[in-house]
């Protein structure tokens, strides 16, 4: 009886390992396909279905940092960089993105809406466009660093301390 159980357990373990490996291989193949089709310097949230024609809301983060962050990073590296220069860099990235939108989306008559422009916490925009056009935008843009699904998150307040 013990022999039967040990063989059954062994078979289950082997099956679990095999299933886990094939799942990981499938995910690895999907990631490699995305890497092959996307600009390698642009991260695209894997939660986005790039084949869907549905209009979705995304957040695009630009390569250049927000002005204050860029100044702090430059100071940490010992590079002189003023806040005015950093603000100009942020402004230039938004202007370049607008030009790219015109070249990539407007000329191809692809509907989109820029909802918000971010310059403080991150440098980028939130926008809506068909999910299947994200690939075109990511491949052609020189300013985009990351494309993420725009979703609401909820943070729980910290627990109150017993001595408060």
- Outline type: flat
The helix content, as a percent range, equals 40-55%
**SSE arrangement, N to C:** HEEHHEEHE
Q: How is the largest sheet built, in terms of strand order?
A: 1-5-2-4-3
Estimated radius of gyration: 23 Å
What share of the residues does DSSP label as strand, in percent? 15-25%
Catalogue the unreliable spans: 21-38
Features:
five-stranded mixed β-sheet; single chain; about 20% strand; about 160 residues
Question: How would you portray this structure in words?
Answer:
By secondary structure, this protein is α+β, with helices and mostly antiparallel strands. Helix 2 (67-76) crosses helix 3. It has helices at 2-37, 67-76, 83-106, 134-140; strands at residues 43-44, 55-62, 113-118, 124-130, 144-149. It has a 5-stranded mixed beta sheet. A hairpin with a 5-residue loop joins strand 3 (113-118) and strand 4 (124-130).
């Amino acid at each position: 009886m013990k022999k039967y159980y040990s063989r059954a357990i062994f078979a289950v373990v082997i099956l679990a390992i095999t299933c886990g490996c094939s799942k990981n291989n499938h995910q690895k193949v999907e990631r490699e396909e995305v890497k092959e089709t996307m600009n390698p310097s642009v991260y695209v949230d894997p939660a986005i279905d790039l084949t869907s024609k549905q209009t979705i809301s995304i957040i695009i983060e630009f390569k250049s940092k927000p002005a204050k962050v860029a100044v702090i990073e430059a100071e940490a590296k010992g590079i002189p960089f003023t806040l005015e220069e950093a603000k100009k860099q942020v402004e230039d990235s938004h202007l370049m993105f607008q030009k790219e939108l015109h070249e990539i989306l407007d000329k191809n008559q692809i509907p989109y809406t820029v909802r918000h422009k971010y310059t403080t916490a991150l440098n980028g925009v939130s926008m809506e466009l068909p999910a299947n056009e994200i690939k075109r935008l990511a491949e052609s843009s020189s300013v985009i660093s990351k494309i993420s699904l725009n979703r609401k998150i909820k943070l729980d307040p910290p627990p109150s301390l017993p001595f408060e």
